[in-house]
Amino acid sequence: MEIQVIEYESKGMAVAQDTGKGVGSMTFSIAGPELIIIDHTDVDPKYSGKGIGKQLLYKIVGMAREKSIKIIPLCPFASAMFRKIDEIKDVLK
């Protein structure tokens, strides 16, 4: 599984690929130089329950830490993960 973060203009996304095939994405809006808003998570139903969404979130959290930015999780999945996982709350706005 390969996950990468792609940013363009005022948007971005983490994309998961398995053997070259897109299997999931988590999109975000860039709200400023120190803030992003996660707005949607989508995982191929064939990959449901395999932790793809969590891996996407961790990739974005890693990016946020590198850039010293905060995250507002409007996406229901991301919001639930921030409530459950204490180790990522350092980037929560």
Order of helices and strands: EEEEHEH
The averaged pLDDT comes out at 96
- Number of separate domains: 1
Distance between the termini: 29 Å
Major beta sheet summary:
5 strands, mixed
CATH level 3 topology: Aminopeptidase
Shape: globular
Q: From the 3D coordinates, which CATH architecture would you assign? A: 3-Layer(aba) Sandwich
Catalogue the unreliable spans.
none
Q: CATH H level: which superfamily?
A: Gcn5-related N-acetyltransferase (GNAT)
Helix/strand/pairing class, anyone?
Answer: alpha+beta
> In percent terms, what proportion of residues is strand?
35-45%
Q: Which bin fits the share of residues in helices?
A: 25-40%
Calculate Rg over CA atoms.
Answer: 12 Å
How many helical elements? 2
Give the CATH level 1 class: Alpha Beta
Number of strands: 5
Q: Order of strands side by side in the largest beta sheet?
A: 1-2-3-4-5
GO molecular function: acyltransferase activity, transferring groups other than amino-acyl groups
Protein name: N-acetyltransferase
Domain N-acetyltransferase: 1-93, 5-93
InterPro entries: Acyl_CoA_acyltransferase, GNAT_dom, GNAT_YJDJ
